[in-house]
Sequence to fold (399 residues):
Amino acid sequence: MKLSFFIARRYLFSKKKQNAINIISAISVAGVAIGTTALIVILSVFNGIDLILQKSTDSMNPDLVISPIKGKFANFDSLSYKALLIHTDIAYFNPVVEENALLKYGDRLKPVVVKGVLSDYGVTTGLQKNMVQGEFQLQEGDLYASVVGQGIAAELGIGLNFLTPLVFYYPNKEASSLNAALNMESSYPIGFFSSQQGIDSKYILTDIHFARKLFRLQKEISKIEIKLKNPEVLEKVKVQLQEISGENFKVEDKYELNRSFYAMMKSEKLVVFLVLLFILFIASFNIVGSISMLILDKKEDLATYKALGMTSGKIISVFRTEGNLITYVGAFIGLILGVLICFLQQTFGFIKLGEGNYIIEAYPVKLVFGDIAFILLTVLLIGYIASYFPVKYLVKKLL
Fold:
């Protein structure tokens, strides 16, 4: 055991001449512990919220998308379809016809995004689990049906009564007269889905053949949405699909397609982390006060250490180690409390979200080892800085 550590440990737990030093040391430990706990809990909550948001939008956000480089629609080679079918890393893929259109329901109008998909889209993507009313079905007998985002349904007052149809309008580029300037097709709402506000408020899902009729297409599609069995192979599969698709198509991953969404989540987490870090940095001034008062209290000991042959560097090391011990004890207590709180919240969900229409009842949490390691390193660095400079200045001045 090093001499500096032995003396620092005795100083930390022994009673001082001034009782205030013990109190300030305890407050310093508590400040570091509370700050560490807060960082672990808050970042774990953000991780949990991110996970819930990704899961809630997972059915509408594929891992990879193949789309034409030029234009909105293109024919996809049948050989490429076969290559996707036999690819071992692909869980499923969906050809999609997607375009903006004007929706009329009763006497109300709203611009929407019409997304034409195959009949098994709800099953393969799991979107049918997100149905809040009605069912996921794109045809009812000889009639086409539509699955409407809950935001659109609420805004237009859409009901599932098969009395008032949804009427879609799309510009007809080949029209020779004013009367034929708009393509018009109608379907009936059969269900409402809820995913994310930005999706619910603009998307309507229809049969792919209905979408082709509306947009006057033959076999063209807008894109192919792909879900992987293992998201960890995303980059590898992306390169492979680009080779399969050819130079007329581009392959984009979910991070490129949803840059703003992922950037927002990262920036919010970073801002909260920096705010809590600043609070922890302010709390670390207690360490400065505690160490400074301890040095003054042990002023007579400094001369004794010097007489026994200890160098100035060794004496500085004693009190610097004292500051580090305060940080270590506080960080360890904070780690235990933070992990325990997150574990209890994960298991029992005792902190509820309160009244409201939420997809979950309690605050979600997800412990990430990388976050915990980064928090601990940051806390220890702050503690080291807080004890290093005051100790060096005071000891040299007194000696």
In short: The longest strand covers residues 90-105. The longest helix spans residues 19-56.
